Amino acid sequence: MALGKAIVVFGLVIAAIGFALWVAPSVPFLSRLGRLPGDILVRRGNFTFYFPVVTSIVISLLLTLIFAMLRR
Description:
Blueprint: H1 2-23, H2 28-31, E1 40-44, E2 47-51, H3 53-71
Antiparallel strand pairs: 1-2
């Protein structure tokens, strides 16, 4: 029973993230996601390296808060 609940919650979280990314261009704070200050971008000739350090931290904190609230 707990596994089924976890799968449903996980699916809802994935759906919410997908919806947020879908509407991101029209929402000011979501349109910045992936281009936050602190994200690493290196462009050299025809090579581009992008590592979203701050974006990863923000997403991790949000998911931690969401799962902590769902636990209670």
